[in-house]
Specification:
Strand content: 5-15%
GO molecular function: isomerase activity
Pfam families: MDMPI_N
Number of domains: 2
Protein name: Maleylpyruvate isomerase family mycothiol-dependent enzyme
Strand order of the largest sheet: 5-4-3-6-7
CATH superfamily of the largest domain: dinb family like domain
Number of helices: 11
Keywords: Isomerase
Order of helices and strands: HHHHHHEEHHHEEEEHEH
InterPro entries: DinB/YfiT-like (IPR034660), Maleyloyr_isom (IPR017517), MDMPI_metal-binding (IPR024344)
Largest sheet: 5 strands, mixed
Number of strands: 7
Radius of gyration: 19 Å
CATH class of the largest domain: Mainly Alpha
């Protein structure tokens, strides 16, 4: 019987195969062009993903070996090496490093996928393989969109990843949400999603929270699920917003964009 980690690992594989095939067709001009991440070129996004894959693989290997902490300065040394690469090396290095990470996840047997706990170094406690993989999947899926959107403003998040990520943003809201932009206004919105269908409540106050859909909401946000994820991640600019996104009530979509400016 498949467990949660199996689905996440399968999505990491399909995402890797898709993005690798895409970027291997890019030349240096494409790689140095703008991405969906405002301060990064396409190559710099790939550098971020590649260095992240290398760090994630080392973290996984330490967990498998008994959980020793990372050596002092390890992450910084990885970033320094990747920062020194050329755009083409960023592309090729990403493909190689991320393949190694995905292959290592795929090599884990069923018991390890279920029982292993991984210390990511920045959370209060070690997490499961499913949770560690899901965090990588979130980063990978959003940055895949960043890589592609400069050439195709209609691109959407990978369908295989979207259902797996819908419950992932709640713990991040204290960090990513900026309720002060509302100037003291508050609202409880119903969030009704499609593809897949889900319903949530979005409490806009201080703090911002995602929970159960309210029985009597102040307003309603309707959107494709992938657009909802992009809104939370600061990737739903007007030119990149599907026509199906609708907000009714005391707040506008522009208000929500300010609350979730990206990170």
């Amino acid at each position: 019987m498949a467990n949660a980690a199996d689905h996440v690992i399968a999505a990491l594989r399909s995402g890797h195969d898709d993005l690798s095939a895409y970027v291997l067709k890019l030349d240096e001009r494409d790689l140095t062009g703008p991405s969906g991440a405002s301060e990064w070129t396409v190559a710099q996004v790939l550098s971020h993903l590649g260095s992240g894959a290398e760090i994630a693989l080392a973290t996984l290997e330490r967990a498998l070996a008994g959980g020793a902490p990372a050596p002092d300065g390890f992450n910084e040394s990885v970033w320094d090496r990747w920062n020194a690469m050329t755009p083409v090396a960023h592309r090729d290095g990403f493909v190689e490093a991320n393949e190694r990470l995905v292959e290592r996840y795929e090599s884990l047997d069923a018991r390890t996928r279920e029982e292993l706990r991984i210390d990511l170094g920045f959370l209060p406690a070690p997490v499961s393989v499913a949770d560690a993989g899901r965090m990588r999947l979130m980063e990978f899926t959003l940055h895949t969109w960043d890589v592609k959107v400069g050439a195709d403003p209609t691109v959407t998040l990978a369908p295989a990843a979207v259902p797996l990520l819908l419950g992932s943003f709640g713990p991040l809201l204290a960090w990513i949400a900026k309720p002060a932009t509302l100037g003291g206004r508050t609202a409880a919105l119903a969030v009704d999603l499609t593809d897949p269908e889900r319903s949530y409540g979005l409490q806009l106050g201080d703090p911002v929270a995602i929970g159960e859909r309210p029985d009597q909401p102040d307003g309603v946000l309707r959107a494709p699920a992938e657009a909802w994820l992009r809104l939370l991640a600061g990737r739903l600019a007007p030119a990149r917003t599907p026509a199906a996104v609708e907000v009714r009530g005391p707040l506008t979509l522009d208000d929500l964009r300010q609350v979730f400016p990206g990170y």
